Amino acid sequence: METTVADLTLEQKVGQLFHVGFPGTEPTDEIRSLIREYHVGGVIYFSRNLETPEQTRTLSRSLQRTALEEGAEIPLFLSVDQEGGTVRRLPYYTETPGAMAAGATDDPDAAETVARVTAAQLRSVGINCNLAPVLDVNNNPDNPVIGVRSYGEDPDEVATFGERYLEALQSADVVACGKHFPGHGDTSTDSHAELPVVDADGDRLEDVEFRPFERAIDAGIDAIMTAHVAFPAITGSETKPATLSRAVLTDLLRDRLGFDGLLTTDCMEMNAIADTVGTERGAVEAIAAGADVVLVSHSADRQRRAIEAVLEAVETGELAEDRIDESVERILTLKSRRDLRPERSGAESDPAADSDLAALRDLSRDAVTLVRGEFDTALPFDPDEPLYIVGPRTTGGSPAAETQSALDVLAAQLTDRGFETHVLEVDREEPADLSSIPVGSQLLCCAANVARNPAQASALERLLDASHSPVVVSVNNPYDVHHLPAVEPFLTTYDPSAGNLRALVDVLVGDERPRGRPPASLR
């Protein structure tokens, strides 16, 4: 017999509204306590929790066993941000390209392929909820947190790619969670650091920001995540995050757009919340506004205090117990609809179908884009001549993204293709010594988030002043072209996933030509 809302105590009901994270690759005493005593409804994984497929599988089984045998006897949502590209947490299996790389192919089948591969990978290690797709329209080239995590700049294209992704994910029994409602695409600040404000009027929000979410709702998306962003046109306030606004979550999303799925907050420890109302008070206000799930990703102390704050709000009458029951009903309904059980067995090798892995390689090949200039002016490179590679060692950007070393990967792949490579790192603090590069040499300049590391622009200017003729490639963000001298040719891979970098090398050596379609603002 399935658990119903009536079967649960108030403490169990409130606990189901919380998803929490923890450090380490094995269950800690704190996370076991949160499951046993506070009855949390879900656990979110980060890279810190994941080492190998078997370790993750064992972790998932252990957490589910604790919930089913010692907690509220309700299975957990086990979630992760596995968007692909710059935001991915699994350190094993085939890397999937990110959303903008898929968008650059101009083929929505690409989004479906990524979702099928991702679903197979997640299910094999017991993860049943993916915090994707990103449904934000990246209509601000200076956006520091969304950027290439978006399918692009056109709301209808974002909607189409997002639909294909969510349908493929959910057809494999993985919960899809579209984010970040009402839209994080037109921001120039990162909500991990402070509260962004979108000043657009209601008509623009209808035409751009809302459209992908409306289409996702029509397609039956399981869950939607809120944005810690202020929308004065909706709320009348530049200091009220959407996450805490009843006008956004209930009046707009529930009543007007008709969404009756699971509504989760973004992490309540992000500074846009933690440094304003605070995580604990924010949890109460988010639930009052209409959120079903409160995400607190890191601190066990904050997690406990937030749960206790909500319990106190119900006991004092600030929050009606009926409001809690509405959310628990949605949670139990979705948990019943999706198979949350971990796989009983699984291979260490990638569980995705060979045909889908081959389609991923085609996706990467079709994504590499010539943003500016002509391919034939400086390419292909000649393996009989030395090749100098200049760029930052890592591609870290927003706290949401993983730090990766595209420079080393590219150098290794080019060395494997017969090149004598010389790598010169561009450091944030110290000017790179570029004097060792002979004029007339083959020169590849890699760029990654230049706005965050302007030393890259300075290095390129010095190379141009010294009469060098580099090929420039952004391995992470096509909008880097706005922050660099006007060099041609300028290529982009959209993200430094392994397949995209391999496809770039194929272009650099002349085995392929760039086929991707750049975002509209760069055409």
UniProtKB/TrEMBL annotation:
Entry superkingdom: Archaea
GO molecular function, one term: hydrolase activity, hydrolyzing O-glycosyl compounds
Domain named Glycoside hydrolase family 3 N-terminal: residues: 9-334
Entry-linked SUPFAM superfamilies: (Trans)glycosidases (SSF51445), Beta-D-glucan exohydrolase, C-terminal domain (SSF52279)
Keywords in alphabetical order: Glycosidase, Hydrolase
Pfam families associated with the record: Glyco_hydro_3
Keyword Hydrolase applies: yes
Gene3D superfamilies from the UniProt entry: Glycoside hydrolase family 3 C-terminal domain, Glycoside hydrolase, family 3, N-terminal domain
Gene Ontology biological-process entries: carbohydrate metabolic process; peptidoglycan turnover
Family (UniProt): Belongs to the glycosyl hydrolase 3 family.
Protein name from the UniProt record: Beta-N-acetylhexosaminidase
Native source organism of the sequence: Natronobacterium texcoconense
